[in-house]
Each structure stands twice: as structure tokens, then as C-alpha cells.
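Minutes, project check-in
Item: structure for the 212-residue chain
Input as provided by the requester:
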Amino acid sequence: MLALVELLYGSGLRASEVVGLPRTAVRPGQPFLAVVGKGGKERLAPLSPPAAAAVAAYLADVPATSRFLFPSTGASGHLTRVRLFQLLRDLGLEAGLRPTQLSPHVLRHAFATHLLAGGSDLRALQQMLGHADIATTQIYTHVAVERLVEVVESRHPLADGIDPRPSVASRRPWLHTSISSDRLRTWSPRSPSSRATPIPTSISPRKSRGWN
């Protein structure tokens, strides 16, 4: 059971993908496994050290003649999706979870969510999940909003209310400005003859028709 959970959560496999894995899918020393996904498309899925260790321990009980990693006496020759759902449901109940809180899709969703929260690239996640369209992968991005807010609040220079950018006066000490409600007065010692020039605060509709 541990091998199933590790592959679902650690590799982000679909239910149909994990039950149909061949016995030779996991090879010693390889940090990935070949998976045949939707439409018969093959991809490489990550294999974490804990998952590899769990599968290695599990293989000791799998007959060497078995074609599948999770064999069964049924017509398909391997564990069925229905049985996989049942096993996870029972495992969740033992842990005090509701039936809907643990399923193959929940573990796959957690895989994607936690990778995004950890800073994973969206394109890389798309390949790991086997999505044909990146728009499907973007569904998972909304769950990382809290993480993004946290990053902005902790890393952005304006987050503490202090503007680190040099002020206009420090960048251009020769320029002095004073702002009133109806005009902006600008004076520069470089131009002794310069005088305050009123700037309109609104533009008539006739003059702004050509603006986009």
C-alpha cells in the first residue's frame, strides 16, 4: 500500500497510470519512470527516493513472472481503478478522514499544488502531469495564491511601507516642485527666465477623442 501512495503523491500519476505500470517501470538507480498516459502518450515521471525505496521493498512480494507492478487475478491482470479507490478510502477511514478526503486525484492534486508552492516551473509541471494543454495545468495555480502573497509581503521592498527608491529631489536636486490642487509649479535654477506654467487637470472630450 505504501508503494501505491508514494507513486500517486510522489510522482503525480493518474489512477489508470499507476495500476497499469509494468513490473519493470521502476529501475534501480533511475530517478524517473516511464509512464503511458492518456492517448497512449509516454512521458517521464519523477521518482523520489522514498518512492523508489517503497517500490523496491514491495517488489520482494511480487512474482518475478508478473507482467505488472501491481498484479491481480482479474481479467486485466493488474489492480483495477475501482479497487485502488477502495484501498485508499479504507486507508483514509483508518486515519480518521472522510471518504472524499483521500483518493488518487486528491494525491495527484496535492503533488501539483505542493510543487507550485515550492516554486516549480509551470511548464515543467505540465510535463510531469502529462497535460497536453498548459491551460489544464494552470488550474492548479489558484491554490498557490497564498504563497504568492506571502512572497510579495516578505520580499517586495515596498511591503514595509518604506519606498527604497531615491526621491525626485535626491535624483535631481536642481528641480523643485510644489503641487497645488489646480496646478503644478516647476522652477529650475538652470532656467532663470522660467516661470510657473499651469498644467490642465482635465482634457476636453473633443481633444481626447483620438486617444486610446
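Outcome recorded: The beta strands are 32-36, 42-46, 176-179, 184-187.
No further action items on this chain.
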